Amino acid sequence: MTTKKTHTVIFQPSGSRGPVKRGRTILEAARDLGVGVESICGGKRTCGKCKVVIQEGFFEKFAINSKMENLSPVTEEERHKLKPEELSDGYRLACSSKIKGDVLLFVPEESRSGGQIVRKAAGELTVDIAPAVNKYYVELEKPTLEDSTADLERLLSGLEQNHKLKGLEMDFTALRSLPDVLREGDWKVTVTIWDGREIIKVEAGVNDTMMGLAIDIGTTTVVGYLTNLRTGEVVAIDSMMNPQVMYGEDVMARITYAMSHEDGLEKMNRAIIGGLNKIIRNTTEKAGLSPEDVFELVLVGNTAMHHIFLGINPEPVGLSPFPPSVQHSLDVKARDLGLTACKGANVHVLPIEAGFVGADNMGVVLAVEPHKSDEILLIIDIGTNGEIVLGNKDRLLSTSCATGPAFEGAQIKYGMRAAPGAIERIKIDPKTKEVRFKVIGREEWHTEFEEDVGAKGICGSGIIEAIAEMFKAGIIRKNGTFNAEVDSPRLRKDGEGKLEFVIAKKEETSIGKEITVTLSDVRAMQLAKGALYTGCKTLMKRMGITTVDKVILAGAFGSYIDREASMVIGMFPDCDLDKIAAVGNAAGDGARIALLNKEIRKEADKVATKIKYIELTIDPDFQTEFMRAMYFPHMKDQFPNVSHILEKIPE
Amino acid sequence: MTTKKTHTVIFQPSGSRGPVKRGRTILEAARDLGVGVESICGGKRTCGKCKVVIQEGFFEKFAINSKMENLSPVTEEERHKLKPEELSDGYRLACSSKIKGDVLLFVPEESRSGGQIVRKAAGELTVDIAPAVNKYYVELEKPTLEDSTADLERLLSGLEQNHKLKGLEMDFTALRSLPDVLREGDWKVTVTIWDGREIIKVEAGVNDTMMGLAIDIGTTTVVGYLTNLRTGEVVAIDSMMNPQVMYGEDVMARITYAMSHEDGLEKMNRAIIGGLNKIIRNTTEKAGLSPEDVFELVLVGNTAMHHIFLGINPEPVGLSPFPPSVQHSLDVKARDLGLTACKGANVHVLPIEAGFVGADNMGVVLAVEPHKSDEILLIIDIGTNGEIVLGNKDRLLSTSCATGPAFEGAQIKYGMRAAPGAIERIKIDPKTKEVRFKVIGREEWHTEFEEDVGAKGICGSGIIEAIAEMFKAGIIRKNGTFNAEVDSPRLRKDGEGKLEFVIAKKEETSIGKEITVTLSDVRAMQLAKGALYTGCKTLMKRMGITTVDKVILAGAFGSYIDREASMVIGMFPDCDLDKIAAVGNAAGDGARIALLNKEIRKEADKVATKIKYIELTIDPDFQTEFMRAMYFPHMKDQFPNVSHILEKIPE
Questions:
Q1: Is the ipTM of this complex over 0.85?
Q2: A605 touches chain B (CB under 8 A)
């Protein structure tokens, strides 16, 4: 038996992989591969910040057999710095674990270094501010031996006299603190009432701080918008990678994890609740407030995220006929979910439309309002899953298509998140095949040879443009194969003899090698865009239409993709380019709208039941349509709005 | 410095005290003093069952300075058998702790040996069975691709179709288990609905088990009645000493403990919740069921017990003007209180009348129904506190009097709980002053000299009869002093030269010494009965009446006292002896009634606001009346119904 001198190490969630010399630590390997792992002490084994989680088992996707035995034994430092439950969950310190074999590992959010750009920023909304919680100030008479009315009854009568509020109930946790707060405030208090019926908090004296948190749980990214419920202003935003990513990258992988591990649901639920508590802490801290100032939360997320967040088994959602556990919106006490906010606060969870078309899409609908539109809208929410809504005030159809995370840069060899160093825009000269690109974090396009441009990989919008440009330049054909006859040093064969196209030269990257687009990258994009196109077309067929009035691209990613490029590769049916609009993170906007206006919540419940869900896979034409849609832009369909471009493409 | 050879050891809650030789263990001391401390291994230091809690500090009442240093150091066995938090809370093993100085200690419920008679037994009730929870069986259509309605919406539509139930909400914990239960039951399920509006549990298949628990938290005793909500039958009873006793024997002591210790409220709350969870476990186990089968709980208790149970600061209840935090009944999720029952179960807490007249008295009112009576009733609930309600359907007054726990045998030298070995009945021959008595656990009266009768002490009903008999026999005078001229060897001086009367001779007891009634025992009874009498009389004065139609004695203890004896010593104003009725543990009965009929709960809330509370201490005549009422039976008032007895008493 010979001992190999190098081993394969794969870092999740970035997917960065490479050969690493035996005996190097994980922290050293991370630096070699350009993976940001936090280490305040610089590898001196003192700070304990470089936690990573070893994933054990054989991972077919990566052809890697990852084992804890492939690392040096757990050291004394690690036993000291890691909690017992972390040790049993496979946590190690990157600085102290030496590589002795192949390893797949996960870098948890807390250990990741390097800034992240919150692409899910919060725009202006037009919404009447009428939140579910309101504050009322009241001054009460002190009790005497002649009038020793109980505290709560005294408060209720004060609220009735001063504010005409009747029939109120009181949250139990608010009642617990009532006698102390009344006396602390010398019988002058501020009362927070939820939904005009439940006292959820009593504070001493005057206190008009009233915050709410809109939460968007994406499969990959979680964002929280701390919002002033009086002004509607977003006072702080925090986002993080969904901590469940370590249990599976997409929805189906997480459902499978819940099915195949007895404590799988519990672990994933704990992960997201822990993450949200961090977001609550971070945003309130930024605003100089405390979690107790969050009086109401509104949550959107796809059906699986919704179920796991609530601690409901998502298994049925992953098995035909895919019924969710609940469709209607819910109001759950934050404390029942383990969230640390105001003790009496409620979490309002938007309704689910059907199956995979979840509360996140309901958020999109609230933001775009197709149910009030005369024009027929095709709303495409591009996240890890693709959700589509088609229609207007008369009729609405929806579906979900398994695009996978390719649009987000995952499953792409040099794919990465939209973070500094990611190539986000690309242009290829049709004649010379020379490439210009723009990197996130740099103002200018990279126009000529320039060292240390710092490119690390390609993000989602970059990969779409790369494919479109390669197609337009004749480097790839309609069917997605490379045209080997293209005469350019950038088109080359990789180690295994497969063709790939160089986007960034070695000197232009910070990873010590070229950044390329491979054949399997093109295949991944074909599957993703084919699924999306088929979804759009199936809905249009059901609606009996062949064109739409407008295409609305929702999802943060939708704001960054090039409209022309996406149409050139056929991500969705032809449409006037001027009629394609990006609306940003509409799911998050919908959560903020529902946070600010309680009437809109009722509207959401009504609309949710009106949207008819179309199950794509049982459509008799699905297979044929999907196969045709894998072509660039399509095997048969015409694209008059970009025909001037398509016509120029060399055969 | 000389080292004393004996030290004072006092065992709480029994109050048993005595000199103990230096170097003896606490377990040996307990045996010497007749205190039951559990010890399965017989003191071999192996079982760890003999836990006791050392109370540190100077206790004025006992003139004892108790310190942990007055015991041998903590041994290895103790470190092994006791949890760290127990060690820091002052826990020791009785077998391993040797006495080196004066010690006051508490024997927790779990360490007490010897059977206890549940005097709070459950009688028959006349009540329409209409509980707040109901079960419905429903069979649903399975979801298909054509109809993938969500689980909850499917269930709701099934309940509407089959049982005409509309507008239902669902408890969040029940929703969490919904998808699994529906599939486990093959879409045939039993649904439990609370108050016609909230689904609190869904069970697979047919399951008609529906239990409720009525809970009576007394200051001294806690009882739970596991009740079949279909039949009303009490299927199991469990009782225990209120575990809060270690923090204070009466209501004021516990309020003081909450005020003077930062975590005092939390500790007492944890103690009662832990105790109730034990009762839930014990009763359901006896019935062959699980805590999950308890679908509803109803709780009664005085205002301080009510507040501490809910985790509400009881301090204002103990300070003039004594307002409670809430008067109205409450429905709180059992899980919010830390109670282990069905996860969606509610605890209904009966309303408080006013100040100290709490939810326990409301239970008494529900059982006795003075608000429906034509006759004027004087209802006296004798527990550790005395609560009085006077009136009929036209008008109701109430008050509370600080009787202290003397009626329950506490603060009495040889006082003990109503447990085997307690003297419960006493007769004294007026001429010979010879004593006959009856001991709990023995069928027969003790009529002549008999060794090993096994008397250990005197319980509450015994002490009342002892005082009455001593008064009738001329051994004590109207003003409570001993008549030293009585010629009987039983009237003797104790070590300090104070007179006392021997009830049981040394040979008749199992404690190796005589059981006596001392001067301070008589004083304690004078204070207790004086307070009670003053309360009754003050209410009657306010009502403008001098006699009542009926006297109702509530409280378990009320069932055991001799009506004639209690009138002879003047516990309450004169009344036809035939019109004095004992109704047992009416507070517990009221809790059972409210558990079985939800309409009566609404009635309770209405009645609670109608009963006018009279604060005794601000009555201008209070001091004078109290002083006069300390006499046997009274300084001035006449007792025509027992005048034939009173006239015979020698001056």
A1: no
A2: no
